[in-house]
Recover the amino acids of this structure.
């Protein structure tokens, strides 16, 4: 850039120097040309002024000579005969510039004159020139004389009047009598001055009338002194050489003057015209200034325009240099390591660079004219491209990862940046796409991720990944989960005895076993050493459930790790200690949870190792309790701790028509256990299946026994069937086998199902029910009204009976809604031809109410609590005997 | 002598004409005779090159002729011969801007004046002694006036130190100044204009304040009321219809028009 700048500067300086030189040359040339023209004009003006002066002096001399010629003739006429003064006056008419005429006799006395005052004057002859003592027939002139006439002048010895003067002239005339007289005349100076003034004004210069001896007679310059030499010092010398000439000179007062002079052809007078050079050149000077201003103005204007033009030229040159550099940079950038292609607005590829060819395999010839679909990998759907275009159109650019296909078919990831190129109006003209092959980067990234998130030994997630996943799991607050800390007991001993490679081998196998034992959503991580963590993010919705599952899984992990290991030929066995913390144990925070699980692990170790311990002691307790219950339940069938109780069911007349068989468990250690306590556990553990079969078998045996006695032969027996049972694929076959084995009448057996059976699976429940119907057993829907109570089931399923839930029965007298439900259910059953049995009937009033609503069968403490078989049979006998009576 | 005889002859015809007024004569002869001074520039000037008459009073005289429906005959006169020319019936009326002064009023009857002028001096351009009006009445100065003009008595009366030179003719006073025998001559506004326009040497010297105003009018014989009334009526009309003012303006004499 600085190189570019200095080049620019050098270029600019060179151009500027040239420009300044041209400007200076133009200025110089113009100035010289103007000056030369002006000088020529000045010379011409001076020549013209000289010509004017010559012309004027010639005209004035002409007028002077002619005037004097008239004077000479007039004087000749006046003197030719003897004249009286009054006759002389007529001669004055001849020439208005003759003020007076006087005749002087040979004695020099004026004897006649037009002015009486002149008579008798003696006038000196030597004053006149050319001087002559003898009579001379030529006009002679005296000096300028102050006064109006001879009579009041110095010539007459009088004090002269100031301000008025005359030129005395004289002519000797021979009269008829051969006597000479001298005729004198006083010439009016004003006459000549008027004439001169009319030709040359005082500003132009002055006109001087001199005697031929060079003394000044009159001048249009009021300051001139008559009698003295004129202002021109050169004149006398020039006059000595030639009678007419012109020249330039500088006067004593500093003025430069153009002088033209001319002597009269006949008379001893010289006329000189002096033109002031300054005023003679005034017009030229004015014109010269004007021209100079105009030229200067035009020059300035031209210079201004030229400068502006030059600056503009410079700016353009700079812009061009910049553009060229930009182009070079752009060209260099285009040949970068990044693949670049340029498309028009219709996505037609116009240009690609070498890197593009290197990356994609497509040459310029391959790509130009194609659209970028050429590169499409097929991995991105239309939505991806739609998003790309939306982003590009709305923001002017898009960048992101994209999978493309090389010419050889290889699919590779690239980082693509597409930028819209806009023209000056903001219209998009092209798109420039830059792509970088990021295959290696992706691989590196993956490697980095592997290193960052996985334990290199076991390939299990490391602490960081665990924490991330844990954080994610904790964020889902709607599900319970657990964190298990696990370490191997006495792992250090193994390391010490067999070496680290065997220890590592063990850790790898442990990792594999753990991984195999957990579900897909669960995470097995290794924190380091023999420390493993198992994250169980989803363990049902309740704490108890979560705890149970965690316990079970922990247990299964413990057992899995207890199995023998083959460590390079060494048979090895080890035990783990497992600490469990549920999410619900405390704050749902990673650190807290990890700490809790660690503490649980510590307590497991403290509890003697190879065990599972919970962080929460209460939970630990209940889990232990459940475990104990479960192990007890496993023994229950073998040790015959289970028994059935019977609750009587009556018809509308109050006669016992059947019973519901209810399971009872009496443990030698735990005492009597209610079904609510152990049935869920049995269902969870799957023990419900054998227990259920036992119950069915017992019930069928009882039915068979009752069938033998006439007063019990009509009794039906209801048995609850769990979902788990019904889910058994061979449930129907097993029931069929029991019926056959016991010989019980299927019609007396009523299987009570809950709504969950119906909702559990898709249609298999109902098909199984139909199979049960074909066996001849009857089906009842338990707890009707508390669940979904879908009416479509009632229609669809092969039911015999609905058991109206006891909550409605107990509320029917006090709650109008319950009463309404009771009535509705009864009405519905009637119309569907279903039998209804009301549960939980405890008072006569309820019984009466239900009867009034049309209910046919009843069960409840009013008719008898669930009781051992002996008690029930006693009740039957009592009823039978009372009935017989 | 000839002059005296002519006067007598004219006087002899007077009684014959006396019985009838000028108006009747004019109408009878169908001609009005108008005395003019043909050198009076702007008033009654005869161009020497064409012999054409022009001037305010020429226009007015022609107008009078039209008004009377008679021919106009111009009779050359001058200020020197004005009174005898009128008295001896050489013309019916003198129309050349005659300055009214007591001497003339004694002999002549003047119409209502139509111009008014002060006195002006004419000198040569080269005369360095006279620059202002005050320079005129100084010792050694010679002031020329033409005989018979109103300026003669005025200047005779007014000049205290300068010498008065009376010439026989108006041309004489110009020659005196041109030759330098006199320094200035006195004249009125119209004549001064003629000097300035027709010579190259004349220079006007004007009084700084009013010096001596003179009213100009037409003159006719006394005692002829009918003629006088007729002429006055004509003049009154020309004043009212503006033709007099137009004539004055046409000849550039509006600075001296009687207001």
């Amino acid at each position: 850039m600085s190189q570019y700048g200095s080049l620019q500067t050098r270029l600019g300086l060179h151009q500027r120097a040239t420009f300044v030189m041209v400007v200076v040359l133009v200025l110089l040339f113009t100035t010289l040309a103007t000056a030369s023209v002006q000088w020529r004009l000045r010379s011409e003006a001076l020549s013209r002024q000289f010509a004017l002066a010559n012309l004027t002096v010639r005209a004035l001399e002409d007028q002077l000579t002619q005037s004097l010629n008239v004077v000479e003739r007039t004087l000749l006429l006046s003197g030719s005969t003897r004249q009286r003064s009054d006759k002389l006056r007529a001669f004055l008419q001849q020439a208005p510039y003759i003020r007076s005429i006087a005749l002087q006799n040979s004695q020099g006395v004026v004897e006649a004159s037009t002015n009486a005052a002149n008579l008798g004057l003696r006038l000196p002859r030597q004053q006149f020139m050319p001087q002559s003592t003898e009579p001379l027939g030529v006009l002679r002139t005296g000096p300028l004389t102050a006064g109006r006439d001879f009579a009041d002048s110095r010539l007459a010895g009088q004090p002269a009047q100031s301000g008025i003067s005359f030129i005395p002239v004289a002519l000797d005339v021979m009269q008829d009598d051969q006597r000479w007289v001298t005729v004198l005349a006083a010439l009016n100076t004003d006459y000549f001055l008027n004439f001169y003034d009319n030709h040359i004004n005082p500003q132009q210069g002055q006109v001087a009338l001199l005697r031929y001896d060079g003394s000044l007679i009159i001048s249009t310059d009021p300051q001139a002194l008559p009698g003295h030499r004129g202002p021109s010092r050169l004149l006398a010398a020039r006059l000595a050489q030639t009678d007419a000439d012109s020249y330039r000179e500088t006067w004593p007062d500093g003025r430069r003057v153009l002088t033209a002079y001319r002597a009269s052809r006949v008379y001893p007078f010289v006329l000189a015209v002096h033109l002031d050079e300054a005023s003679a050149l005034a017009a030229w000077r004015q014109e010269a200034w004007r021209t100079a201003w105009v030229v200067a103005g035009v020059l300035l204007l031209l210079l201004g325009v030229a400068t502006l033009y030059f600056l503009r030229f410079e700016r353009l040159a700079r812009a061009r240099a910049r553009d060229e550099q930009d182009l070079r940079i752009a060209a260099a950038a285009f040949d970068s390591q990044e693949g670049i292609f340029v498309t028009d607005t219709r996505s037609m590829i116009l240009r690609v660079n070498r890197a593009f060819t290197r990356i994609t395999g497509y040459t310029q010839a391959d790509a130009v004219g194609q659209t970028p679909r050429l590169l499409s990998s097929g991995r991105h759907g239309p939505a991806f491209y739609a998003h790309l275009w939306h982003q590009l159109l709305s923001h002017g650019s898009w960048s992101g990862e994209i999978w493309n296909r090389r010419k050889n078919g290889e699919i590779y990831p690239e980082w693509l940046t597409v930028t819209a190129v806009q023209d000056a109006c903001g219209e998009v003209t092209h798109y420039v796409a830059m792509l970088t092959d990021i295959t290696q980067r992706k691989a590196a990234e993956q490697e980095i991720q592997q290193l960052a998130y996985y334990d290199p030994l076991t390939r299990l997630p490391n602490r960081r990944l665990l924490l991330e996943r844990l954080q994610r799991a904790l964020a889902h607050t709607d599900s319970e989960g657990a964190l298990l800390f696990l370490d191997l007991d006495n792992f250090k001993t193994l390391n010490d005895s067999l070496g680290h490679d065997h220890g590592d081998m063990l850790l790898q196998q442990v990792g594999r076993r753990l991984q195999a034992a957990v579900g897909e959503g669960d995470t097995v991580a290794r924190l380091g050493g023999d420390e493993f963590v198992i994250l169980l993010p989803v363990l049902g919705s309740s704490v108890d459930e979560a705890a149970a599952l965690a316990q079970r899984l922990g247990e299964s992990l413990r057992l899995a790790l207890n199995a023998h290991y083959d460590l390079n030929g060494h048979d090895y066995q080890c035990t783990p200690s497992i600490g469990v913390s549920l999410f619900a144990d405390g704050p749902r925070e990673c650190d807290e949870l990890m700490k809790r699980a660690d503490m649980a692990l510590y307590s497991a170790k403290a509890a003697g190792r190879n065990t599972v311990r919970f962080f929460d002691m209460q939970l630990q307790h209940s889990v232990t309790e459940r475990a104990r219950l479960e192990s007890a339940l496993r023994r229950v069938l073998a040790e015959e701790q289970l028994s059935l109780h019977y609750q009587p069911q009556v018809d509308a007349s109050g006669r016992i028509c059947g019973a519901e068989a209810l399971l009872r468990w009496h443990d030698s250690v735990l005492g009597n256990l209610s079904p609510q306590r152990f049935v869920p556990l049995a269902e969870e553990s799957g023990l419900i299946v054998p227990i259920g079969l036992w119950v069915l078998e017992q019930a069928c045996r009882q039915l068979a026994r009752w069938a033998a006695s006439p007063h019990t032969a009509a009794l039906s027996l209801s048995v609850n069937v769990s979902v788990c049972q019904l889910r058994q694929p061979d449930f129907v076959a097993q029931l069929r086998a029991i019926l056959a084995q016991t010989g019980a009448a299927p019609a007396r057996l009523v299987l009570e199902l809950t709504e969950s059976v119906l909702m559990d699976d898709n249609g298999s429940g109902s098909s199984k029910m139909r199979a049960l119907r074909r066996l001849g057993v009857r089906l009842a829907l338990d707890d009707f009204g508390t669940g979904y109570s879908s009416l479509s089931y009632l229609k669809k399923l092969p039911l015999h009976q609905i058991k109206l839930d006891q909550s409605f029965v107990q509320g029917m007298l006090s709650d109008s809604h319950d009463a309404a439900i009771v009535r509705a259910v009864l009405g519905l059953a009637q119309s569907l031809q279903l039998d209804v049995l009301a549960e939980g009937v405890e008072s006569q009033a309820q019984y009466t109410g239900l009867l009034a609503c049309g209910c046919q069968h009843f069960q409840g403490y009013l008719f008898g609590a669930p009781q051992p078989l002996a008690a029930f049979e006693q009740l039957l006998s009592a009823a039978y005997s009372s009935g017989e009576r | 002598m000839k002059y005296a005889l002519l006067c007598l002859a004219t006087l002899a015809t007077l009684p014959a004409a006396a019985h009838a007024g000028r108006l009747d004569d004019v109408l009878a002869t169908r001609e009005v005779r108008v005395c003019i001074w043909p050198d009076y520039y702007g008033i009654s000037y005869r161009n020497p090159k064409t012999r054409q008459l022009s001037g305010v009073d020429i226009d007015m005289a022609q107008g009078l002729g039209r008004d009377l429906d008679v021919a106009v005959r111009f009779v050359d006169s001058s200020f020197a011969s004005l009174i005898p020319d009128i008295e001896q019936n050489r013309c019916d009326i003198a129309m050349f801007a005659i300055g009214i002064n007591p001497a003339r009023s004694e002999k002549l009857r003047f119409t209502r004046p139509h111009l008014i002028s002060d006195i002006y001096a004419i000198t040569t351009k080269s005369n360095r002694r006279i620059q202002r009006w005050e320079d005129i009445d100084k010792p050694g100065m010679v002031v020329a006036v033409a005989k018979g003009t109103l300026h003669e008595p005025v200047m005779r009366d007014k000049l205290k130190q300068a010498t008065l030179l009376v010439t026989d003719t108006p041309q004489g006073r110009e020659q005196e100044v041109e030759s330098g025998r006199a320094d200035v001559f006195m004249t009125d506004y119209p004549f001064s204009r003629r000097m300035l326009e027709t010579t190259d040497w004349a220079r006007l010297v004007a009084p700084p304040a009013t010096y001596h105003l003179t009213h100009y009018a037409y003159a006719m014989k006394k005692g002829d009321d009918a003629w006088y009334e007729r002429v006055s009526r004509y003049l009154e009309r020309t004043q009212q219809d503006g033709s007099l003012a137009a004539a004055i303006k046409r000849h550039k004499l509006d600075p001296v028009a009687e207001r």
Summary: Chain A has a mean pLDDT of 86. Residues 335-443 of chain A form a domain with the Beta-Lactamase fold (CATH 3.30.450.20).
